[in-house]
Design a protein that fits this description.
Layout: H1 3-11, H2 16-33, H3 36-63, H4 77-93, H5 99-120, H6 126-147, H7 157-170, H8 177-190
Helix pairs in contact: 1-5, 2-3, 2-4, 2-7, 3-4, 3-6, 3-8, 4-5, 4-6, 5-6
């Protein structure tokens, strides 16, 4: 495998083709485990954060980059998704410290890893990665904060098994979310949205 293939392999863990099924299956896993509050927070927080990323992309595609961030071309959805889903899940599963610290421990390394692949592949600018990472981190903090501490009867192993199954089934598939958002922004600009 070439270095570029390794980068694509890593970055695909943040693709919507992996993140969306993982989000749905994880909500069900949390619910069936008996952690209703965790399942509810996950079911609201993950879609809300992903919609925030999509809306930010639409605004930039439609109106252009803000003057303060001229290199912000498209907030990185991969970076946001990795910070949110993997970092948020880690923050929900960890115990023993305040929620925002758990979120930082879980989300920042994932945002740096996936964001770094997006930069190395040349598909995003540093501003795109930082803004995407901050949106994902905000979502992860919200998940940890509102879910509260994981009940003692909930093991971290079932979520890990669920992630592995989703990886096997969906990793390597890529959804053209960016293209769909560009098309939506063009429709919006044309007044047909």
């Amino acid at each position: 495998m070439t270095d570029r293939h390794h980068l694509w392999f890593l970055t695909d863990f943040g693709d919507q083709a992996v993140v969306l099924p993982l989000a749905v299956v994880m909500a069900a896993a949390l619910l069936f485990s008996g952690w209703r509050r965790g399942a509810l927070v996950w079911s609201i927080g993950v879609p809300a954060t992903l919609l925030a990323v999509g809306f930010a992309k639409l605004l930039i595609f439609r109106f252009g980059s803000p003057a303060a961030l001229p290199d912000l071309l498209s907030p990185s959805g991969h970076t946001a998704s990795a910070a949110l889903v993997y970092g948020g899940l880690a923050a929900m599963m960890l115990r023993g410290t305040v929620p925002w610290r758990r979120a930082l421990l879980g989300a920042v390394p994932l945002a740096v890893l996936i964001g770094g692949t997006r930069l190395a592949l040349g598909v995003h600018t540093p501003d795109d990665v930082v803004v995407g990472g901050l949106i994902g981190l905000a979502g992860a903090i919200g998940l940890a904060w509102f879910a509260g501490d994981r009940p003692h009867w909930i093991s971290a192993w079932p979520p890990a098994a669920v992630m592995l199954i989703v990886f096997v089934l969906f990793h390597g598939i890529r959804l053209p979310a960016e293209a769909w958002l560009h098309a939506a922004a063009q429709s919006w600009q044309a007044g047909s949205l």
